[in-house]
Design a protein that fits this description.
single chain; about 500 residues; alpha/beta; eleven-stranded mixed β-sheet; Amidase_dom; Amidase_CS
């Protein structure tokens, strides 16, 4: 394996700035790595080697000409396949969009290109981001680089696996109920869900519009912060985009690592998580050990009672499917995408029914049906309306909590990565995998997951959540803890991962 590809994105950026390598060399090294291991992983749905090398050459030319470039100029990146890329197939891992090449770039892709970051390709996911294992892709399962018999999490398992396997130093994901953070925990990487509205959703194929958020997948907290600096900011095409000046997240991460301290930080912990209901005992032990490290670094641990969190999963699985039902109504065989014409009289209704039956997978159909039922006459108030009330109570509870503490902490997941096929026929088990990540989405809060150690030989993570708009606070806190852990480990957790072998699967 080329030693260059194991470096962090910030280290690669420094090497480019110092003239130690070129973007073309870096991009080719990552393309070679993809060719070498992705047959086993299936992290990518589409690799755009030609386009990536062209973008890399342009980044090198700009640097050589002395033109102003972004800190990550020339560093390659991967993009989750539910984010639109001009002329590059974007399917959301669904048959209903097979072959679709968007006539536009998502806002975040525009930002990547303006920053001179070559796009290696599109990563696999659960269809339309609906899943917690990356097994619900219409184009096959993605596997965990730590153990090819296990899932990498979902829905953004492809992005997390690509970063963990050194196929890409950075990737973009989307997080509706944990789809960046849960895969990060399962793969020993870092994942950040920014404040709702901090990163434009323009060009992200909508699942749950009041919940979806694009964010970075990376190997270090600083790398994630640097990528959010690139993709964040106001976009008038997204009506939920926040119009404000954001601080440098990279500076916040550097400050946390350099301080090596959490002195004065108040960390809140909900008793609902410490009780351990539904959480693997070893995962809980790892979490409490992480809290003790924070205490040793100077943080104050404050126990809280967040009663509404126990209703978060139930509320989410009413609100999200309702929005899914509405958003996916556009895939109707008439305007774009797949069209299946049944035998006999081809009425619009029959073509639409045949197309949606063939084009959507079982999990997508399940959520459409759940959402349509929740929104139906006679049930709207009892289900959708009640779930919205729970959401409001949860938001108020978080607001109150942040008058007492600076950040909240929780285990990112309830267990380490489970085996492929283990939960595929148990929707409830899949849904409960998001137990600790969903609350941040319902409240629109920023939340970050970073590796906190190994359980049963597999990575797990600790999650920090902060008040709306305080993304920099999370980067600073996470970087301080990461610095302490990495010092003990002698490098990132990924240094302990086994090398990928085709025979493992």
């Amino acid at each position: 394996m080329n030693d260059m590809i194991t470096r962090s994105a910030s280290e690669l950026a420094a090497a480019l700035a110092a003239g130690e390598t070129t973007s073309v060399e870096l991009t080719q090294a990552h393309l070679d790595r993809i060719e070498s291991v992705d047959g086993a992983l299936h992290a990518f749905l589409k690799v755009d080697g030609e386009g990536a090398l062209e973008q890399a050459a342009a980044a090198d030319a700009a640097r050589n000409a002395g033109e102003a470039t972004s800190p990550l100029a020339g560093v390659p990146v991967a993009v989750k396949d539910n984010i639109a890329t001009l002329g590059l197939e974007t399917t959301a891992a669904s048959r209903i969009l097979e072959g679709w090449k968007p006539p536009y770039d998502a806002h975040v892709v525009e930002r990547l290109k303006a920053a001179g970051m070559p796009i290696l390709g599109k990563t696999n996911l659960d269809e339309f981001a609906m899943g917690s294992s990356s097994e619900h892709s219409a184009y096959g399962t993605t596997y965990n680089p730590w153990d090819l018999e296990r899932v990498p999490g979902g829905s953004g398992g492809g992005s997390a696996a690509a970063v963990a396997a050194f196929e890409a130093p950075l990737a973009l994901g989307t997080d509706t109920g944990g789809s960046i953070r849960q895969p990060a925990a399962f793969t020993g990487t870092v994942g950040m869900k920014p404040t709702y509205g901090a990163v434009s959703r323009y060009g992200a194929l909508a699942m749950g519009s009041s919940l979806d958020q694009i964010g970075p997948a990376a190997r270090t907290v600083l790398d994630a912060a640097m990528l959010q600096d690139v993709i964040g900011g106001h976009d008038e095409r997204d009506q939920t985009s926040i119009n404000r000046d954001w601080p440098s997240f990279a500076d916040a991460a550097r400050a946390g690592a350099e301080a090596g301290s959490m002195q004065g930080l108040r960390i809140g912990v909900a008793k609902q998580y410490l009780d351990g209901e539904g959480i693997d005992p070893e995962v809980l032990a790892n979490f409490t050990a992480s809290l003790e490290r924070c205490r040793e670094l100077g943080a104050e641990i404050v126990n809280l009672d967040l009663k509404t969190t126990e209703y978060a999963v139930a509320a989410y699985y009413l609100l999200m499917p309702a929005e899914v039902s509405s958003n996916l109504a556009r895939y109707d065989s008439v305007r774009f995408g797949l069209r299946v014409v049944p035998e006999g009289k081809a009425t619009t209704e029959r073509v639409m029914s045949a197309t949606r039956a063939a084009g959507f997978g079982d999990e997508v159909k399940r959520r459409i049906l759940l959402g349509t039922y929740a929104l139906s006459s006679g049930y709207y108030d009892a289900y959708y309306g009640s779930a919205q009330k729970v959401r409001t109570l949860l938001q108020r509870e978080f607001d109150d909590a942040f008058t007492k503490v600076d950040v909240l902490a929780a285990p990112t997941t309830t267990e380490p990565a489970f085996k492929v096929g283990e939960n595929i026929n148990d929707p409830m088990a899949m849904y409960l995998a998001d137990l600790t990540t969903i609350p941040a989405n319902l409240a629109g809060l920023p939340a970050i997951s970073l590796p906190s150690g190994l359980v049963k030989g597999l990575p797990v993570g600790v999650q920090f959540m902060g008040p709306s708009g305080e993304d920099a606070r999370l980067y600073k806190a996470a970087a301080a803890l990461e610095h302490d852990l990495v010092t003990e480990w002698g490098g990132t957790l990924l240094a302990q991962a086994p090398e990928i072998k085709e025979a493992q699967r």
